[in-house]
Amino acid sequence: MGLTVDWATDWLKLSAKAMEEHRVELIELDRAIGDSDHGENMDRGFQAVLQKLDEAPPETPGAALKAAAMALMSKVGGAAGPLYGTAYLRAATSLGDATEIDAETLAAALAAARDGVVARGKAELGDKTMIDAWTPAVDAAQKAAAGGADPVGVLEAAAEAAETGAMATDPLVARKGRASYLGERSAGHRDPGAASTALLLRAAAAAAAGSAAETGTDAV
Amino acid sequence: MGLTVDWATDWLKLSAKAMEEHRVELIELDRAIGDSDHGENMDRGFQAVLQKLDEAPPETPGAALKAAAMALMSKVGGAAGPLYGTAYLRAATSLGDATEIDAETLAAALAAARDGVVARGKAELGDKTMIDAWTPAVDAAQKAAAGGADPVGVLEAAAEAAETGAMATDPLVARKGRASYLGERSAGHRDPGAASTALLLRAAAAAAAGSAAETGTDAV
Amino acid sequence: MKKLINDPRSVVDESVEGFGMAHADLVDVHTDPIFVVRKGAPVAGKVALVSGGGSGHEPLHAGFVGHGMLDAAVPGAVFTSPTPDQIIPATAAVDSGAGVIHIVKNYTGDVLNFETAAEMAQAEGISVRSVLVNDDVAVEDSLYTAGRRGVGGTVLVEKIAGAAAERGDSLEAVAGVAEGVVRNVRTMGVALSGCTVPHAGVPSFELAEDEIEIGIGIHGEPGRHRIAMEGADAITSRLLDPVLEDLGIKAGEEVLLFVNGMGGTPLSELYIVYRRAAQILAERGAKVERSLVGNYVTSLEMQGCSISVLRLDDELTALWDAPVHTPALRWGM
Amino acid sequence: MKKLINDPRSVVDESVEGFGMAHADLVDVHTDPIFVVRKGAPVAGKVALVSGGGSGHEPLHAGFVGHGMLDAAVPGAVFTSPTPDQIIPATAAVDSGAGVIHIVKNYTGDVLNFETAAEMAQAEGISVRSVLVNDDVAVEDSLYTAGRRGVGGTVLVEKIAGAAAERGDSLEAVAGVAEGVVRNVRTMGVALSGCTVPHAGVPSFELAEDEIEIGIGIHGEPGRHRIAMEGADAITSRLLDPVLEDLGIKAGEEVLLFVNGMGGTPLSELYIVYRRAAQILAERGAKVERSLVGNYVTSLEMQGCSISVLRLDDELTALWDAPVHTPALRWGM
Ligand SMILES: Nc1ncnc2c1ncn2[C@@H]1O[C@H](COP(=O)(O)OP(=O)(O)O)[C@@H](O)[C@H]1O
Ligand SMILES: Nc1ncnc2c1ncn2[C@@H]1O[C@H](COP(=O)(O)OP(=O)(O)O)[C@@H](O)[C@H]1O
Ligand SMILES: [Mg+2]
Ligand SMILES: [Mg+2]
Ligand SMILES: [Mg+2]
Ligand SMILES: [Mg+2]
User: Fold this and answer.
1) Domains along chain B?
2) Which of A138, B160, C251, D229 stands 20 to 30 A from C17 (CA)?
3) Where do the DhaK domain residues begin and end (chains C, D) (predicted)?
């Protein structure tokens, strides 16, 4: 069975929870090589997403992600706001009006999201940005989908790859975003945007696993 | 034998040395209940006194103290500048053109100095100001002179009384000067001006003892 | 202590020198003794205003030298009132024959040094009138202190008396205007941190993370009492209530509201205080006709602020609005 | 962290509200979304200037809204660029039909948000031109960074472009003037301490008693490198030399010298830096024709400063001198 709008809203709710719980951690990461606001901005943004979902419950996964995109765009600010806003908007566009999403569609939506971030931010792999979480995640998702995994499996693979990708930013020297001003001094710290991307994709996987459990589908 | 201009210049030189050596201590006392400048101001002022003595060596004790008064008045600033300036000026006036000072004259000059501080600052005994060092010092000096002490003895008595008086300011609540703004919180700290007065009178005694030793007079 | 200075002993000289270079169109800086005079002073026929005090309160006083405000400023060492040998030539340099007003913040040192200087200037034939500023409500005006301190309100006295002098008022009239401001302005301040006098090298006092000093002066000295940290709105009430109480501000009255930074507090926080102060005044029915927000009477890099309220009438408002052109306060020209 | 605030999340709202109350004669404050517009905007026939960015740099930008400078300012959260849903209505509110210039400091977040807003405003029929400020010489302008940051020079761009707009220049002409300023201004900064973002609650970085950060931006981020504390004169050379190098200032050229405080450094220290900077310029034969000293582009309560040099020509000088009337910069009216 594919993922429905319930998964999408669960994902966004778990994302909001994750941003709230990891707010201080993301601030701390940003404090080291940026300006101490990433956790605060993401938390504020996802609170706005929750409010938007409450005001007008979406009918499709695409509609849910589009609502999230608008809320993030208008409430996060900084670099992450337009980047995540674009990511969610491109994912929403990629999903279209579909009410159920299969593994391939899901992987394609993640790729569209990533491509949106690249289109806006022009970062390449290894620049020590959220792309370093997105790109391995997309690769892993596509591989899983091609290998016949179900949506839960696709998201599990994406989340794990994003986490590994985020950790792999630690030794890198930033070449995009605020951390790039630090030059060599940016090495030795995890990129906050890569860390938040990993958290968001982990939330996506958890939401899928939860939906799957509810509807009685085996998550594995 | 009475005190000469050599004593007066020695006194001022030893005073300058004392202010330099106790600069930090006086700043610390003033930091607790004032504005952290007393040691700095006195040090700067007495350096100016030294320069003045250098430029135009005085001929009489009165002239030395008058030169000191002018230097203190123009270089110390704050409350202490005009107060000490007046004190030294009044003492100088009291000494007149005398080239040798006996015990009685000396005690009278100290009283004149003290009266000058009172005239300018209107402080009473117990207000936690330099008067709490000056007044016991003047009393002790007058008593010693009346009892037949020589100038060295007079100054020894004055210095000791000033030191006791300064210590006695510790528990007092200030009622004049900057420390008075602290109200009850001024208790438990020594008054910086009383402390500097004690140092200056100790320098006077040391200068006298030194002169006495040099001229072969017994200091006791 | 970390400061953008070269040597603690040259701080005032170098700072005033830089000030003179940056504002060479407005002021002349005299050295040894050090004082700052308005370009072109003395202004023929005009009563001159001279103020001064310890350094460390910048822009006070030198920043207020210029058209419509001070004719001369006399900076002492940091937190140390200047000496007569600076005040006397500054006074002489700006006297046009119409007389000179000394605006003196009420501290023993300032009073004594200006008193001496005034006496000696008088002896040289200059008419000098002194006006004492004592706007700090934190200090009870009792026999048991040196009287109320002069703090933030000083800048209002200087601006308004300066405008009176500029329009040609006589010595007595300018002094009367200045005294009118003093009677109608009250101030109270708070510190969130101490400050470090360069030659002392250690902070004037240490506050725990959750402590603030209420009723501070402007010399880094501790305040009247120490309390637990509170929100900006609560602190604003603590400062403003006694000010309004003491002034006896009634509904319908017009006031100037001045939120002054002590030097190390961001402007954004001063506006948070201003917001609540204006609300409180509105709740009491008072009308905030004029306002001033910024770092005007500081204590080096101290964090904190003071709130001043000046009761306005039409004349004071007009004098406040009159053109002024100084390094730190400028409008209408 | 001790701040004069009520709640870290309401800092910007309350501060801007207070700002609006204090300067009700000059600005209108819009809430939800939050932005500040010049009273009476749009000004018929005039090109409008809009700037914005994260809060925490006060008085930048809102303090520069008014006659002869900005028509609107859009404050984001602290150190967070504002969002398109603020920038778009601010842009619409001030457009008289003559078009709008977005003055954007070069940071990824600011660029992306203003870019989106400009696109959408264009779609609504407003002519928008963006000018990117990137004056920080600390960041090498290479492929390996997001390019030079916009820092202190921003205030000079806003003042001078604002004067061009006020005299009636066209959209292209105002943009050209602004870009001319950007080409001719360079800046470099130093921090003696970090600053504390309210919601973070801990300092952006910690420096030992004998360390300073050279080449900082204005967001409390660490600088390019950390060095041992030095005297003000030595630090001034460290900041000014690369600025002059990069600008290629030659003997005989005229410049504006701007010493900007980061928020927590006393004005007196800024003048000590100004003194040495002016001396260095004089030694090189450059003429300091105009100067600005004060806290204009800050990082909350950070201690430190930046030095900007703008190469002047007759037109830039005339535009600099043109009347301006904003809460934080005012002359000629
Ligand atoms: N050009 C870019 N492309 C992709 N991601 C970027 C880019 N610039 C910044 N980022 C991401 O944004 C994160 C910072 O977000 P945030 O702190 O919210 O914004 P800001 O840097 O404006 O304060 C970085 O950790 C990085 O992952
Ligand atoms: N009215 C006064 N009468 C006598 N002594 C005073 C008076 N006011 C202050 N003092 C003395 O001056 C000392 C402070 O001197 P100083 O720190 O140099 O000046 P300031 O208080 O102006 O900073 C006090 O400790 C006190 O002894
Ligand atoms: Mg950030
Ligand atoms: Mg003192
Ligand atoms: Mg003092
Ligand atoms: Mg940011």
Assistant:
1) 5-214 (1.25.40.340)
2) D229
3) 7-331
Cβ atoms C209, D203 nearer than 8 A? no
* Residues with Cβ within 8 Å of residue D139, at least 6 apart in sequence: A181, D145, D147, D148, D149, D215, D224
- Whether residues C28 and C165 share a domain: the answer is yes
Domain residues for the domain of D235 are 185-320
Q: Tell me: do D41 and D87 sit in the same domain.
A: yes
**Same domain, yes or no, for C251 and C121?**
no
Q: Which residues of D touch C332 (CB under 8 A)?
A: 333
Residue with tokens 């490198």, as numbered in its chain: D225
The reply to whether ligand 2 has any atom less than 6 angstroms from the CB of B80 is yes
The count of structural domains within chain D is 2
Q: Which two tokens stand for residue D130?
A: 């963006």
Is C199 labeled as catalytic in the residue annotation? no
A191, amino acid identity? D
Q: Give me the tens of pLDDT residue by residue for chain A, a chain 220 residues long.
A: 699 999 999 999 999 999 999 999 999 999 999 999 999 999 999 999 999 999 999 999 999 999 999 999 999 999 999 999 999 999 999 999 999 999 999 999 999 999 999 999 999 999 999 999 999 999 999 999 999 999 999 999 999 999 999 999 999 999 998 888 888 889 999 999 999 999 999 999 999 998 777 765 443 3
Judge B/A contact: 3 or more CB pairs < 8 A: no
Q: For an interface test with B, give the residue of C34, C139, C221 to mutate (most B CBs within 10 A).
A: C221
Could you tell me if D206 and D160 lie in one domain? no
Q: Considering only alpha carbons, which residue of chain D is nearest residue C300?
A: D266
Q: What is the pLDDT of residues C208-247, one digit of tens each?
A: 989 999 999 999 887 888 999 999 999 999 999 999 999 9
Domain boundary among D184, D201, D223: D184
With beta carbons less than 8 A apart as the criterion, state whether B49 and B71 touch: yes
- C331 within domain boundaries: no
Domain membership of residue D329 (yes or no) is no
Of D200, D219, D225, the CB nearest to A27: D200
Q: What angle do CA B83, B88, B90 make, to 5 degrees?
A: 95
Tens digit of each residue's pLDDT (9 = 90 or more) over C287-300: 999 999 999 999 99
Environment class of C227 (CB within 10 Å of its CB; exposed 0-12, middle 13-18, buried 19+): middle
